[in-house]
Write a structure and sequence with these properties.
heterotetramer, A mainly alpha, B mainly alpha, C alpha/beta, B: mainly alpha, Arp2/3 complex 21 kDa subunit ARPC3, 8 helices, 2 strands, 69% helix, C: alpha/beta, six-stranded mixed beta sheet, four-stranded antiparallel beta sheet, binds adenosine-5'-triphosphate, binds magnesium ion
Chain lengths: 260, 210, 240, 240
């Protein structure tokens, strides 16, 4: 599902997963909490740069941005007419306000830049690698196990779904707006649930047979080995986090000085 | 149903993360080893099922399914939905990392709520059970859209219109989810009642699983 | 109608990521009233061929003509699927309704019958297959053999003009096996039957073919083998 | 140790809701160094027997003795499970970890090894099975044959004293098949192998048994069949 983004050889792909997830989270956080467009703009530049460094196929990147674009269009239709501030323009009863316009702009910048950073740093990971990264960053073992295992079986269950869907097609089923159609999809989904639960029983048995006693013991990379190959990238990423944070602090302090 | 990155304010994000962490921790605490394995595979099944698109006239909507998640998993809905959202963020870039907490609460709190409220009625045969399971699907989406609206409104007055629009815009989804949930519950009740939490106060015996 | 039911010509299919084509310039004609057995080793592409015929896979080259018309695109295959009944290799993949009657009535419903009409059609087919009394059984709790017979019922309920059966005998016990043979022998619907069981094919098919290097090889070559010859017993233990 | 590895006596098991017992007063002894083939029709209870031996199902009657001790309760079976390796019929159920190395190291980790030790144990087993370089492969992307070999590795990584293999050859291509035969022939671990493939069993087992009406039937009756006899070719078509 994120097939187009993994299995690429790039400096980012060679960076330790834990570092990537941590940096992506910190960058998202600073950007999301920014008060002015300065940091989001910097993050946007950083995001575009990272996507290029990660050598992501640009067509796939654009496709992933589409849903966000739809959401932002909705935002741009509504937000400029809300809030206070100076009136910029009037369309009949509606007035375009500076506040709303700025907010729409700010949100668009933030959303795009965060998404690009996420794509370059996190979507370039296998799901299980992300699970282990989160574990290394302090997520409980049980939750890691839950994430990693459901990621493991999504493709198996997806294949089962395709087969059931094909079986329905073979018997002349055409989706439309009708209770029959909804019921059919409900039956497919319910059958999928039943099968996944039966499989869970078998998988649990397999675990028990290999000495599982209710305690999850994960096998993760030992730390030093994880960082060794990617010190330069880690340094650059850490540096960019520091720069963005510093930028935001500077902006806020400057902004405070202006106000008083 | 999720909120994109970059919209919400710090207090809302933090509140969401705190509540989500509590819910996830409590959900995890209630799962034993076998329960975790079941939850993991059922979560994958829900993940796949949530990719199903249903037609409403010329438009098509994809399913939310949180009412059903609540009925099947109970409190484990929190870790399950957290997992689903995390994987969605990773695989499709829906939502993101900083909004993970808020989005988890928006989806999982209604799931747990409807399962606590309506589980006892789901077991009823006939019309009562059907209405209760319709209600489960309908209300879970309704509550979710209210929570989502609340998160927007607490972020800023500017979002009032969008918040209301999203509640109203989700109305058809609520109805479709209601029917869908009712059909799935009726299937499970007839075929595999073990899967409906309310019908199995105790975990099923191992013999039945092989 | 007189021409062939289905004609494949020059069909070629390679799985994504596969090196060699599984189906490679295959020509095949199924005429009205044919009953063909298809016997070939594991992995030779039998199931793939059926999936191509039903439009579940898209060939990289070749033309498929069905019921007198060239078939292309999802729309074209919609018509084919109404008239060709396909029994999947794995019966577990074919049954998705909670009860047997709902599953058998599903096809007729999609062909436009009302709920009552579809139900009575389903009952009739079940009766015909010796499955009376199975109406309210839960599909996924059926045994392997029962699942197979119900899957056959779901296919027959659509009154197909052509049957494609993918290893219909796996998991059948002796009784059910005999019933299946009787049903097929009584039926006049054209069919292609995949099986590894030569004895079974001899009972339900008029002629045999095989798949060799992605192409259909007809009858002629195979007839050579329909004689008793020395062979170490390679199956389950028997007691003579 | 000299006595038998495992002895079942009077074992009886009926599935909940089933009418007839699937395993019915069964007696069975596996001695040190044995290598037994178990060949019986579909649905005769082979898999069920293995599940009983591993304590995944609880028999309604009968006694199971393993490694010199009578085994009862979950605690007792914990010891059995450490020493008996069970290869499932469906490899997808057995490979639940995302990567090969994690899956193979899972057992050793649970036996109390540290992460590093478990890793190197896993690597050694993979090397032994000709799977070096598979460490970081993703389990669900493996082919059927690769999955089966990795599943075998997960079992062997626990250094079992007895192997129970449930249809290890299904879905194997020719290459993997040969590798599996070689691995089993080289291994000295006692084993019981379920298969429908007589030729395979002949290569990897010293003696054969079958399951008839819920009871084990040993060798003697079966040996009668290990001779060439006249039999119509009942398998795939060949060209001589
Ligand atoms: N989804 C797939 N992706 C890639 N290769 C596939 C896929 N499905 C089948 N194959 C390959 O295509 C070849 C033909 O497979 P197919 O299932 O058509 O064989 P078959 O003749 O039906 O075998 P069997 O007797 O085992 O059912 C095999 O080598 C198989 O490995
Ligand atoms: N969970 C279950 N509940 C009820 N009956 C079952 C269950 N599992 C198996 N059975 C029945 O028990 C019998 C023996 O099944 P088992 O799977 O042990 O057979 P097998 O010899 O392994 O067959 P195969 O060669 O198909 O693997 C079958 O008739 C089957 O229908
Ligand atoms: Mg096949
Ligand atoms: Mg079996």
């Amino acid at each position: 599902m994120n097939e187009p983004f993994i299995d690429i050889d790039s400096p980012i792909h060679r960076t330790s997963p834990a570092v990537r997830v941590a940096v992506a989270f910190l960058l998202s956080l600073v950007t999301a909490l920014a008060k002015t467009p300065v940091v989001p703009l910097a993050a946007l530049v950083l995001g575009v740069f990272s996507v290029l460094v990660a050598r992501l196929p640009l067509g796939a990147v654009a496709k992933r941005l589409l849903p966000l674009c739809f959401f932002l269009i909705l935002l741009w239709v509504v937000l400029p007419f809300t809030g206070g501030g100076p009136v910029l323009h009037t369309f009949g009863p509606l007035t375009v306000k500076a506040d709303g316009l700025n907010l729409a702009l700010l949100i668009s910048l933030k959303a795009f830049s965060i998404l690009l950073v996420l794509m370059a740093l996190v979507s370039t990971l296998h799901t299980f690698a992300m699970g282990h990264a989160l574990y290394a960053l302090g997520m409980p073992e049980k939750l890691t196990f839950l994430i990693v295992m459901s990621a493991r079986y999504i493709s198996v269950i997806e294949r089962e779904y395709q087969k059931l869907r094909n079986a329905a097609r073979m018997r002349g089923f055409q989706p439309d707006t009708s209770l029959h159609s909804y019921r059919t999809f409900a039956h497919l989904a319910a059958m999928l649930l039943v099968r996944s639960h039966l499989r869970a029983g078998r998988v649990y048995n397999a675990m028990v047979l290999r000495g599982f006693d209710g305690r999850f013991r994960l096998l993760t990379d030992s730390r030093p080995e994880g960082l060794r190959g990617c010190l330069p990238q880690t340094a650059v990423m850490a540096f960019s986090v520091v720069v963005l944070v510093a930028l935001e602090v500077a902006v806020r302090m400057g902004w405070g000085l202006f106000n008083c | 149903m999720h909120i994109s990155e970059g919209v919400l304010s710090a207090p809302v994000l933090i509140a969401g993360a705190v509540v989500a962490a509590g819910g996830v921790a409590y959900g995890l605490k209630r799962m034993d080893g076998e329960g975790t394995v079941s939850a993991a595979l059922v979560t994958s099944a829900f993940f796949v099922a949530s990719l199903i698109h249903l037609n409403i006239g010329p438009a098509s909507v994809h399913l939310v399914l949180n009412g059903l998640v609540g009925l099947v998993l109970g409190w484990a809905a929190f870790p399950a939905i957290f997992t689903g959202l995390l994987l969605q963020a990773l695989l499709f870039q829906y939502g993101g990392l900083t909004t993970l907490g808020v989005n988890t609460v928006v989806m999982a709190a209604p799931a747990v709520a409807v399962s606590l409220m309506l589980s006892p009625l789901i077991t009823r045969k006939g019309r009562m059970g059907a209405v209760a399971s319709f209600g489960c699907g309908f209300l879970a989406v309704f509550f979710s859209s209210l929570l989502l609206a609340a998160a927007l409104v607490f972020t800023g007055e500017n979002f009032k219109v969008i918040a209301w629009a999203s509640v109203i815009g989700n109305a058809p989804v609520m109805v479709v989810e209601g029917f869908f949930t009712a059909f799935v519950v009726s299937f499970l009740r007839r075929v595999y009642p073990e899967l409906l939490l309310c019908l199995t106060p105790e975990p099923p015996q191992m013999e039945e699983r092989i | 109608m007189d021409g062939p039911l289905m004609t494949l010509s020059g069909l070629t299919y390679t799985y994504p990521g596969g090196r060699d084509p599984v189906i490679d310039g295959l020509d095949f004609t199924i005429s009205e009233g044919a009953s063909l057995g298809l016997i070939a080793p594991n992995g030779s592409g039998k199931t793939t061929l059926f999936h191509l015929m039903m439009g579940l896979l898209k060939p990289q080259a070749g033309v498929l003509t069905a019921f007198g018309r060239e078939v292309t695109g999802e729309k074209g295959f919609r018509e084919v699927r109404r008239r060709v009944g396909f029994l999947f290799q794995d019966a577990d993949d074919q049954l998705f309704s909670p009860t047997v009657i709902e599953d058998v009535a599903f096809g007729p419903r999609n062909l436009g019958m009302g709920p009552e009409e579809a139900r009575s059609k389903a009952r009739a087919v079940l009766l015909e297959l010796g499955l009376a009394g199975y109406e309210d059984r839960i599909t996924f709790r059926l045994s392997g053999g029962e699942k197979r017979m119900v899957a056959l019922a779901t296919v027959l309920a659509m009154d197909p003009d052509l049957l494609l059966l993918d290893e219909p005998t796996t998991g059948l016990d002796h009784e059910t096996f005999k019933r299946l043979v009787a049903v097929l022998q009584a039926s006049k619907v054209a069919r292609v039957v995949i099986s590894h069981d030569f004895d079974f094919l001899e009972k339900v098919a008029d002629s045999m073919c095989s798949l060799v290097r992605g192409k259909i090889v007809m009858d002629e070559g195979l007839h050579l083998h329909r004689h008793a010859h020395v062979h170490r017993h390679g199956d389950n233990p028997h007691y003579h």
